[in-house]
Structures are given as C-alpha cells and as structure tokens.
Amino acid sequence: MALAAYRHLLRATRIAFPGDYHLLHAARTQARTGFDTLRSLDPDSEEAIKGIAHAEGVASILRHNVVQGKQVEGSDVIRLTIHEDTEKGDNDTVKNPFGKGGKVRVGGI
Predict the structure, then answer these.
(1) Residues 78, 70: contact at Cβ < 8 Å?
(2) 2-48 pLDDT per residue, tens
(3) What is the reported pTM?
(4) Neighbouring-strand partners of residue 70
(5) Deepest of 1, 31, 97, 100, by most Cβ within 10 A of its Cβ?
(6) CA-CA distance, 101 to 11, in Å (whole number)?
(7) Does residue 12 sit within a domain?
C-alpha cells in the first residue's frame, strides 16, 4: 500500500509541475522525506495507515486542484497548464454565494 501511494504521489507531482524542475524536485524531496519518517512503522499500524491516506490525499489534490501558470513574455497574460485531470467547477457558488436564491449587491447596484 505504501509503495502504491508513493508512486501515486510521484506521478501527481509530474502532472502538477511539468517543466518546472525546481518545484518538481522540491515536491519529490518532500514526499521522500515524509515517507522516510514513517518507514520504521508497522504497515498495519494506525499511524502508517493515516500516513498512506494523507499521501493519497495530497496526490489527489496535486492531480485535480493544482494548476501552474506561466507569464507570457512581454505581457501581463498568464498561461495556465490545465490538463485532463484538472477539476473544473461550474461556478454555482460564485453565482449564488449565500445559497439557493441568494443575491449579492456590490456598491449599491
């Protein structure tokens, strides 16, 4: 289980940080450090199971919710690296932030 979680985490870093060697290296180093600290635990212990669940959760967030942007040279435009796993919302919470039928008025409009 731990090996599979570690592989999922490494794949997620590759997907989340394409072309950014420094951030990719830092994320993978952090993952390695996290797994090394729990290496001596019994695989069936509660702490080990929680660590594996945490790693899977981090991998899921990296894969579905992290988008990298790069500024286009000579302009204020930022290009986002959106891939097939990126979660795309429907903006319902932006349209109705106070719940069903709610309205927001800004500046007395």
Answers:
(1) yes
(2) 899 999 999 999 999 988 899 999 999 999 999 999 899 988 899 99
(3) 0.73
(4) 79
(5) 31
(6) 41
(7) yes
Secondary structure of residue 24 in the 3-state scheme: helix
The three-state DSSP-derived secondary structure of 34-87 is HHHHCCCCCCCCHHHHHHHHHHHHHHHHHHHHCCEEEECCCCCCEEEECCCCCC
Q: How far apart are CA 103 and CA 83, in angstroms?
A: 33
Give me the number of domains the chain comprises.
1
Share of the chain above pLDDT 70, in %: 82
Position 106 scores a pLDDT of 59
Cβ neighbour number for residue 62 with a 10 Å cutoff:
21
Give the residue numbers spanning the domain of 54. Answer: 2-95
For the chain, give the mean pLDDT.
Answer: 85
User: Is residue 101 domain-resident?
Assistant: no
For 23, 77, 78, the CA distances from 73, given in Å and listed in that order, are 20, 8, 9
Give the single-character DSSP code of 108.
Answer: T
